[in-house]
Amino acid sequence: MEIQRKIRERSGKSQDTIEVADVLKWCIAETNSHTRKSIPLWATQGVRHQRRQAVYARSAVQNLSRDLVESLLELEAQSLKQRYGEERTHHEEQLLSQSMIDGPLMVRKKQLDEIRAKCQEFEVASFNTATLQEEQERELSPENEREQQVELPPASSPLTHYVHPDVRRLITHGVLKRSSDAFQPAFETLRRTTASSHYDSRAWPDDLLVTTDFANTIQASDDQFLDSFLRPVHWILSCKGRSAVECVVLSPYEAQELFPSIRESKVVTLHTYSPRPSVSVRTLEDLSFCAVPAVPESLPDPDIIRHLNLFAGQLYIQDFGEYMMLCEFLGLCSQPPDDSVQVACDGFISPTSRADSERAMIRVCPFTASPVAFLRMIIALRRKGQSFSSSHFGKILNGELIGRNEF
Questions:
Q1: Terminal CA-to-CA distance of the chain, rounded, Å?
Q2: How far apart are CA 372 and CA 327, in angstroms?
Q3: Dmax over Cα atoms in the chain, in whole Å?
Q4: pTM confidence score
Q5: Beta bridge partners of 242
Q6: Number of H helices, E strands in the chain
Q7: 242-274: pLDDT as tens digits
Q8: Coil, helix or strand for 235?
Q9: CA angle, corner 388, sides to 385 and 392, nearest 5?
Q10: How far, in Å, CA of 227 to CA of 388, rounded?
Q11: Which of 3-7, 90-94, 168-172 is the least confident region?
């Protein structure tokens, strides 16, 4: 529309149809206008080129002296008076407008006359307009460009899904056989990741279980890390044990295949779960969302739920009370410590300092070394490279304290 309006203004038409002649007339006018604006810059560069050619001609006759080399140099800067004063006439403009020729340019008089004639043809009277200024180099601060390159995992063959008979027996009879190869402690499955170097098998609890079909995803050698093939946690099967409610993480295939049996079972409950990735997302850690049956008679122990959240890579904590209990379990500082308490840079309280002010931590914390490095790597693997530093867990793992107003 803008080009159409300019064509009509140039041709003098308001509502008539635009013809080819009108377009050509506008193109010629725009070309003439652009050429007129470019003539001062062309003339300035032309005079400087002729000056260099004159110096080169002199150097061919006599040896290239220091004076000749310095005559090629141009001013690197201008004073305020030269830049903004009333007499801010360019030297090249003086040469062309006043027919003034200095000594070195006498041999290039013909070329200068041609440049002068072209300026007179386009009625160029001044070289001080904004459009004629020669391009200036600007010193730019270096900009760091980061282009994320996604490294795809190596091609691998998936394992065939399989429902173990002991998993079916758990659903039909409510009997959880922990010694069976159908079940594994959840945190033990992370031995096949790069986080295994920070894993302390004696400290991490084994009450939360996963099925073998959940843990095994691809055909891999024993020494191959499975960082890119961790299965997300979404389906939890709970059953009432002798002393507490047991929890087993199922694979999506098992949840699909066993769903009819679960609906008919009177001893197990299937829960829908997902780690909380954002503060605006509803938490599903109460395991009441889409549970089958709808309202379970008894819920798992809060400790198991806490371990489930850690294993799944949950980023946000439900409330301040859960934050306090989580820090006590991990051995991390949750409030400003006393001077007598030894706190590491990651917030871990040494076992020798817990006796004075952290007696609750002595009862519930199984860690003698900081679990922060292991948790940071696990959450990073779950997040697939996405940052989590601003989340609750990101702040905890960075040694920061979280106030009540952040929940």
A1: 54
A2: 11
A3: 110
A4: 0.61
A5: none
A6: 15, 5
A7: 778 889 999 999 999 999 999 988 888 899 999
A8: strand
A9: 155
A10: 18
A11: 90-94
